[in-house]
Design brief:
By secondary structure, this protein is α/β, with parallel strands linked by helices. The protein has one domain: Alpha-Beta Complex (Maf protein).
Length: 195
């Protein structure tokens, strides 16, 4: 976690997230930033555009507390055949998610929002992932091997679920929850520069 003795320059960054994976991903590009979990109600996602609305809600909640900051917020979900797969409520639902994703393509969408004062930029990023057909035994093994209850779609592509992925089209980091290429482009266009 970043020290609270922060140099508040005009371009300092705040990540509006409680996700450890988003923190790790952002550190690949930017070593110093403030992490502020947004205190907003999540849920109500039915289609990809809802992710943008939720990310904007998170970003605005944190930007109200840090008006000079450039605030980054994101929300991710998995979609297949018109059905949304967010974070599973329990292992039974996680098993159902993985069974539904087995043997076909699904899309991982992230709604990404960057806000600084009244300036707001958004991106809806899609990555397509092909899972091979999974046996019940494989799904049971995976659910014993990895904590999935905090993961959209009930899997972590950077973990043991890598064994299930046959192909990917798009930004790998988007599947982990933060599309780094889109984020960098937005930050650059908004005038932010690394130190």
């Amino acid at each position: 976690m970043i020290s609270m003795s922060w140099d508040y320059t005009p371009s300092y960054l705040v990540l509006a997230s409680s996700s450890p994976r988003r923190r790790e991903l952002l550190r690949l590009l930017i070593p110093e930033f403030l992490v502020v979990p947004p205190e907003v109600e999540e849920g109500g996602v039915r289609e990809p555009a809802d992710l943008l609305a939720l990310a904007e809600k998170k970003g605005k909640a944190v930007a109200a507390r840090y008006p000079k900051a450039m605030v980054i917020a994101a929300d991710t979900a998995v979609f297949r055949n018109g059905e949304v797969f967010g974070k599973p409520r329990d292992l039974r639902e996680a098993k159902a998610f993985l069974s539904a994703l087995s043997g076909g393509w699904h899309s991982v969408f992230t709604g990404l929002v960057v806000q600084k004062g009244p300036l707001l930029r958004k991106a809806l990023v899609e990555t397509r992932v092909l899972f091979r057909a999974l046996s019940e035994e494989e799904i049971a093994w995976y659910l014993r091997s990895e904590d999935v209850l905090d993961k959209a779609g009930a899997y972590a592509i950077q973990g043991k679920a890598a064994a299930f992925v046959e192909r990917i089209e798009g930004d790998f980091y988007n599947v982990m929850g933060l599309p780094l290429s889109a984020l960098w482009r937005i930050l650059w266009e908004m005038g932010w520069r690394p130190r």
